[in-house]
């Protein structure tokens, strides 16, 4: 689990504070390549570098960006970067928050609901059955929503 701040809800000793600096550009690019394994990263190196900078070297943001790239495989990376940058600039939202917002907007309504509901789950992990209970839907619907949120 990573966090920008303290994890107060965990029992004493269950969390270890380990301050880490954001990844440098080279390591951030390696992580993004590992997450998404997309040829556009090599074909469009300037756009890929722009996406890495937009994520500010934060691994969680890079994972979200990788999932976002997978969701829009047919679009050139430069176009995705331009769309994301424009949206973020228009909203005036902090950079990393912008990446999450853009990824969230691509989720189906069911996956969005699950994403919001998982925030209140007091457990460190959950199952398809617990996701189904949260959604009030069957296992198949929960599995599809979880797959999107992953």
What descriptors fit this protein?
150 residues, mainly alpha, Helicase, Ruva Protein, domain 3, 2 domains, 9 helices, 0% strand, globular
Stretches with pLDDT under 50, minimum 5 residues: none
The profile of the biggest β sheet is: none
Provide the domain count: 2
**Structural class of the helices, strands and pairings?**
mainly alpha
**What is the number of helical segments per DSSP (H or I, 4+ residues)?**
9
User: Into which percent range does the helicity of residues fall?
Assistant: 55-70%
Overall body shape: globular
What is the H/E string?
HHHHHHHHH
Describe the overall structure:
It is a single chain. The chain is mainly α. The protein has helices at 25-36, 40-43, 45-54, 59-71, 77-91, 95-105, 109-118, 128-135, 139-149. It has two domains: 1-95, Helicase, Ruva Protein, domain 3; 107-150, no CATH class. The chain has nine helices and no strands.
Helix/strand layout:
Layout: H1 25-36, H2 40-43, H3 45-54, H4 59-71, H5 77-91, H6 95-105, H7 109-118, H8 128-135, H9 139-149
Q: Quick summary of this structure?
A:
This protein is 63% helix and 0% strand. The chain folds into 2 domains: 1-95, Helicase, Ruva Protein, domain 3 (Orthogonal Bundle); 107-150, no CATH class. The chain has helices at residues 25-36, 40-43, 45-54, 59-71, 77-91, 95-105, 109-118, 128-135, 139-149.
